[in-house]
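Renewal narrative, Specific Aim 1. Our central claim is that a sequence can be written position by position from structural information alone. The example that follows is taken directly from our test logs and has not been curated for this report. It begins with the structure tokens describing the chain, in the order in which they were read.
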């Protein structure tokens, strides 16, 4: 009765966590398992949504509004130092209802099931949606560990030709969930050149690009600019969920290769969720404002300072270059998650649920998404418990 590919998927990590801990979170638990920012959303969200309430009665166009796309292009040009005209407002940008659905649907856009035993390259550890996307599109996921030790991002250029010849799609996440490592410009350039040489699509998930500690992470579109300005074979994914602490707004965008965008738009016109007009307007206002992003980043930085003080040189603690997760080596991630839950009511995610093989088994992922006070309480308890 059901699609047999579903049998290849494990339960979603949060369901596995609920099973491990014997039930869901309770009102008194400290939930650090999910990357759901709890910082106060910028006031302009409610303000613009109220102003635009008259447009709830309209079916939104699948490609959003010209103003939304213009706000995105302005932001991309500013943030990634792109030459004017490189990103075409009307052909190279599409709004998405959160990047999760886009990361999922891009596999359906690119993969022809069964044809030439297609492979999808994924980082290991990874954001779980990449696996679901690859499997449900009828491809085989091919997991690639960090190129410079377990905490780094992968470099697909190290793969042999017999693998690369079957690759149709590759996901790269920078800053990476869960480890917080960042791909530098050389790595991005090398991997874009590789995608072009072997003619596969390189999806660069940059949804944590604005949450950084000491240095602004490099972006794949800057790499394209340095390679001459073409965006062939490349697509970037950006989200307001983390940048602007509005995971419930469900708003992000994709940008890149115009041929790929056209194919993606075609698929989404059948099965994608268009972003409502009031949300497009609020999103445009958010992409045009950097003050709230700076404040947000400072708050994450303060929490990293706290983590450094509380956890210091234990559990292989290193300050993540980007994102808001701690990726801690606790020896046995499931055991530590159980202990933290049973003794301290803290929920964290075992690294095993975000990886294949034994790559993540020793780790837990801790999301620093709460206010400073709650974070301090949780980290103190965590250090005492483990
Ligand atoms: C690496 C990564 N990519 C994409 C997403 C999806 O975010 P959203 O759908 O809210 O844009 C997440 C959310 O946790 C994530 O961690």
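The sequence written for that structure reads:
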């Amino acid at each position: 009765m059901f699609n047999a590919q579903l049998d290849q998927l494990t339960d979603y990590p949060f369901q596995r966590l609920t099973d491990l801990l014997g039930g869901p979170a309770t009102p008194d638990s400290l939930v650090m398992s999910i990357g759901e920012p709890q910082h106060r959303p910028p006031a302009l969200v409610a303000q613009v949504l109220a102003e635009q309430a008259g447009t709830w009665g309209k079916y939104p166009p699948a490609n959003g509004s010209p103003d939304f796309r213009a706000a995105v292009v302005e932001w991309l040009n500013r943030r990634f130092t792109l030459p004017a005209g490189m990103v075409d407002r009307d052909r190279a940008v599409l709004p998405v209802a959160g990047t999760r659905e886009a990361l999922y649907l891009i596999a359906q856009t690119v993969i022809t099931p069964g044809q030439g035993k297609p492979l999808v390259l994924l980082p290991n550890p990874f954001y779980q949606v990449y696996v679901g996307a690859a499997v449900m599109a009828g491809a085989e996921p091919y997991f690639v560990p960090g190129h410079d030790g377990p905490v780094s991002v992968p470099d697909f250029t190290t793969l042999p030709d017999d693998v690369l010849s079957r690759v149709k799609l590759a996901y790269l996440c920078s800053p990476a969930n869960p480890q917080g490592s960042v791909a530098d410009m050389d790595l991005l350039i090398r991997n874009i050149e590789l995608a072009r040489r072997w003619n596969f699509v390189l999806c660069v998930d940059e949804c944590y690009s604005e949450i950084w500690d000491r240095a602004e992470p490099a972006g794949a579109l800057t790499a394209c600019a340095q390679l001459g300005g073409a965006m062939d074979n490349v697509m970037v994914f950006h989200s307001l969920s983390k940048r602007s602490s509005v995971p419930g707004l469900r708003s992000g965008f994709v940008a890149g290769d115009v041929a790929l965008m056209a194919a993606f738009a075609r698929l989404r016109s059948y099965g994608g969720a268009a972003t409502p007009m009031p949300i497009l307007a609020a999103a445009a206002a958010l992409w045009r404002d950097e003050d709230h992003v700076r404040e947000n980043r400072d708050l994450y930085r303060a929490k990293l300072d706290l983590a450094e003080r509380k956890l210091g040189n234990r559990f292989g603690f290193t300050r993540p270059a980007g994102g808001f997760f701690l990726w801690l080596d606790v020896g046995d991630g499931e055991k530590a998650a159980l202990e933290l839950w049973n003794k301290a009511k803290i929920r964290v995610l075992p690294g095993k649920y975000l990886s294949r093989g034994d790559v993540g088994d020793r780790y837990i992922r801790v999301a620093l998404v709460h206010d400073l006070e709650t974070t301090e309480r949780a980290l103190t308890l965590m250090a005492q418990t483990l």
